């Protein structure tokens, strides 16, 4: 990920939390570009997570190209459960994009275009009512589809299907699964 140079906008502060491998490079880029509205903090203890999420206006979810089919970062569900809208810089074929689009909980942009991410932040910041509606939509989706019990049952069914396919003599590995073979 790259820092986008340009004027900072009063009232918009970007907060990154964590110890990811990209952190040192982001800190260097921010210093070199003299970005004044970026704050980077160390990972917070789990008991402070709810407060941290409640303080955000928008939750950012990012995935590198090629990772879309492999991962749904847990913060996706955490933002939704907290009633926070999501800005997802994710590949077009990602499960995160599907969730965001189906639930109406946010907006997606191309992870290869930092200028698109910056434009989306500005667009979202200008419509507080829309942010509220997106946050509410995410919360409703998680309540209907994302409970731990439902997610565990879905994974259990998927694993059962995969195990059943592999136990059938002559069945190809990785054959069609429930849901149209996706």
How widely separated are the two ends?
29 Å
Which strand-content bin applies to the residues? 5-15%
What's the tally of helices? 7
Q: How many β-strand runs? A: 5
Unreliable residue stretches: 175-182
Strand-and-helix sequence, N→C? EHEHEHEHEHHH
Structural class: mainly alpha
The major sheet is characterized as: 3 strands, parallel
3D shape: globular
Widest sheet, order of strands = 3-4-5
**Could you tell me the mean pLDDT?**
82
What is Rg? 19 Å
Helix content: 40-55%
Topology:
Layout: E1 14-17, H1 23-32, E2 38-41, H2 49-55, E3 59-62, H3 74-81, E4 86-89, H4 95-103, E5 106-109, H5 114-125, H6 128-145, H7 148-167
Parallel strand pairs: 1-2, 3-4, 4-5
Helix pairs in contact: 3-6
């Amino acid at each position: 990920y790259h820092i986008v140079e340009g004027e900072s906008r009063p009232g918009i502060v970007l907060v990154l939390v964590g110890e990811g491998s990209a952190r040192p490079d982001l800190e260097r880029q921010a210093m070199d570009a003299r970005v004044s509205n970026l704050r980077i903090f160390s990972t917070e203890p789990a008991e402070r997570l709810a407060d941290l999420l409640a303080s955000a206006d928008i939750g950012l979810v990012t995935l590198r190209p090629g990772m879309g089919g492999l991962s749904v970062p847990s913060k996706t569900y955490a933002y939704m459960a907290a009633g926070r809208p999501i800005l997802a810089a994710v590949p077009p074929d990602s499960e995160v994009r599907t969730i965001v689009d189906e639930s109406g909980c946010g907006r997606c942009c191309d992870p290869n275009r930092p200028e698109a991410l910056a434009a989306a932040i500005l667009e979202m910041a200008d419509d507080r009512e829309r942010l509220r509606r997106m946050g509410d939509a995410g919360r409703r989706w998680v309540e209907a589809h994302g409970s731990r019990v439902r997610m565990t049952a879905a994974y259990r069914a998927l694993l059962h299907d995969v195990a059943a396919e592999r136990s059938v003599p002559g069945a190809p590995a990785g054959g069609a699964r429930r849901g149209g073979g996706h």
